[in-house]
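Structure ticket #2291
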Amino acid sequence: MNQTQPLELSICIVSWNVRDDLLACLDSIYSGAGDLSVEVIVVDNASADDTALATAQRYPQVRVIENEDNRGFAAGCNQGIEQATGRYILLLNPDTLVPPEALQQMVNFADQHPEAGIIGPKLLYPDGRLQYSCRHFPTITAAIFRNTFFGRVMPRAASVADYLMSDWDHNEVRKVDWVSGACMLLRRELIEQIGLLDEQFFWGSEDVDYCWRAHKAGWQVLYTPQPEIIHAVGRSSDKAVIPTIINSHCSMYRLYCKHQARCFATRWLISIGVWLRAVLLIGHTYLQRVFAPRPNEH
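Resolution: structure written out below.
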C-alpha cells in the first residue's frame, strides 16, 4: 500500500449463517463506494451455509477470516479491527444495505467532526420505518418496561420513551449516549486510546459498553441523519432465538455491573430482575411457538 495515500475506510462484518444477506450487503458496498478507498474484512463465525466460500467466489478482494467456532460478535469485531488498515473502521452488520455515496458521506462527516470518536447514521427497516438506533444509556426501569408484560400494561412508560429517544424525529445531528453496533463508525485514534471491544459481551450490549468507554475517555458519540442505512434486524439471532435471549441477558447483566452496579446488594437485585425478564421472554417465545398456526391450518 502507498503510505502517502492511506486507506480511508475499513469495513468489518461479522457473519453467522446469513450468506445471502451478506452477499447483498457486499453488493451494496462495492456498487456504492465510488472513489472512496475501501477494504472489507468478513469474520465468519463458523457458519454452516458456505458463507466463506460464497464470499470468496463473488468478491475475492474481501479478506475472509474463518473461525472454527462461534466466537461471538465482539470477538469477531476485534478480529476484523486488528486486521484493519483504514483511517476509520466501520462495524457493519451483514443484514444491512448501504446506498450509493453513503460510505463517503460517513467519512466526510467524521472528517468534519474530529471530536467524535464514534458516529452512527440513521437506520431504517426495509419498509422505511425508523429504527431507534441511537439512545440514552439504559436504566433498570427502562429494562423492566421494555419488551415485557409490564410494558404491555403501560405501553407509554416515560422511561422507555426516554431510553429510545422516541420523542424526537431523528432528523438532525445530535450528541447521544450510544449508537447501534449494526452500523458504527470508529475513529482509529479512539481505538488506540481505549482498546478493542470487551469480548466478555458475547452478543448484545457490546456497542453500549464501547460508547460508554468512549464518553469516559472524553470523546463524543454523534448521530447523523445522513446517510440512511437499511437494516433488516435479527437475521442471525432469529435462527437461535432462545440462545440469543440468554446471551443478551448475560450481556445486559455484565453491562449494569460494569458501569452502574458496583456493590454486591445492587448486583444481586439486578441479577434477579435480569433473569426474571429473560425467563418471561423465553416463556413468551415458547407460547408463540406452541400456539402458532400450522401450515395446513386455515
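Closing remark: Residues 264-291 form the longest helix (28 residues).
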